TrEMBL record:
Keywords: Alkaloid metabolism. The lineage of its organism: Eukaryota, Viridiplantae, Streptophyta, Embryophyta, Tracheophyta. GO terms for cellular component: cytoplasm; nucleus. This is Bet v I/Major latex protein domain-containing protein. Belongs to the BetVI family. The keyword Coiled coil does not apply. It comes from the Eukaryota. InterPro entries: Bet_v_I/MLP, Plant_def-hormone_signal, START-like_dom_sf. Residues 7-152 form the Bet v I/Major latex protein domain. SUPFAM superfamilies: Bet v1-like (SSF55961). It comes from Quercus lobata. Pfam families: Bet_v_1. GO terms for biological process: abscisic acid-activated signaling pathway; alkaloid metabolic process; defense response.
């Protein structure tokens, strides 16, 4: 059973600033600092480029799983596009055969961008009931967290 979900959020910062967050490990660090979606992240391989593997550990009580590892499969600084695939734990333990996330930072004008996040997944037929674990909720929370961080940083830059 294949599925696709997407989320878009407009942010009033230049696309290059949003990409400095989304295109690097800073996004995972921001998640860890916030602590509501991710309790801990570890880079188990790589430096943030293609092939980097992150282990994300979730707070106690997170429904479904305690951790997963994801691998950066695409990182295009020109197109501001980053893709990651779950390679261990998490969704794979729930019967998913594939769980892939794509972040795109799209320039709208010199001071505004759109962050589009797309999740694609495939679930074994016998685990179809677990497809409900693939939601856009965490991505929407992540996008709001990133937006607030970027706007706060922009405001502090503007006052200096």
């Amino acid at each position: 059973m294949f599925g696709q979900l997407s989320h878009e959020l407009e942010i009033n910062v230049p696309a290059s600033e949003a990409w400095e967050l989304y295109g690097t490990l800073r996004l995972a660090k921001l998640l860890e600092e916030d602590g509501t979606l991710v309790q801990k992240f570890e880079v188990t391989e790589g430096d943030g480029g293609i092939g980097t593997i992150l282990k994300l550990t979730f707070p106690p009580g997170t429904p479904g799983f305690t951790y997963y590892k994801e691998k950066f499969t695409k990182l295009d600084n020109e197109k501001r596009l980053k893709e990651a695939e779950v390679i261990e734990g998490g969704y794979l333990e729930l019967g998913f055969t594939f769980h892939h996330t794509r972040f795109e930072v799209i320039e709208m004008d010199s001071d505004t961008c759109m962050v589009r996040t797309t999740i694609e997944y495939d679930v074994k037929e016998e685990a179809a009931a677990n497809a409900s674990y693939a939601t856009i909720d965490a991505v929407a929370k992540l996008a709001e967290l990133a937006k607030n961080h970027l706007i706060k940083n922009k405001a502090s830059k503007d006052t200096h």
